[in-house]
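Thread title: Can someone regenerate the structure for this chain?

I was given the following input by a collaborator and told the matching structure tokens would be attached. They weren't. Posting the sequence so someone can regenerate them.
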Amino acid sequence: MLEFLNQLPNKFPLTKTVLYTESTNARFLKKCLDYNVKGMIYKKGDKIHHAAETILKTIEIVNHGFICINKIFSSRISIISWAKGNDNFNFDGSIKNYQLIKLLTPREKETISYIKMGKSNKEIAEALYISVGTLEQHKNNIKKKLNLKSANEILGFLLKNKKYFGL
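Best answer:
Regenerated them for you:
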């Protein structure tokens, strides 16, 4: 299987590979990552409906340009060391934040892009051709969808989840 995975990127460069495996062998998992596997799902113990849901979530995350690895693999030192410095690396524990971010409308994401630039409310409102009141409503909707209490927490959320916002 490793030989196949090694050749896959050369034959199909646009293919993003997700591996569904029972193996927790650190060397095998490291090789898979070296061979450009973008997602790894642990097979053993998953119930059929849960496995299907996990597979679909992993494929969606990988399709958005991230590497998604089940938590069970996180105890493997070689994977953790491989992942250091890789901003697109995502253990599935952060799927929750990814799903929250997906709830944002394009206009709310646009608002966030100005917040991350450090723009004032007046500057953001002018750039979006809306009133400051409408901007405040967008920020309230963002807070509600991301389970935040204050507008200041939006920037903190952005920094903690920067890989999803291109920071």
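The chain has two domains: 2-95, 103-165.
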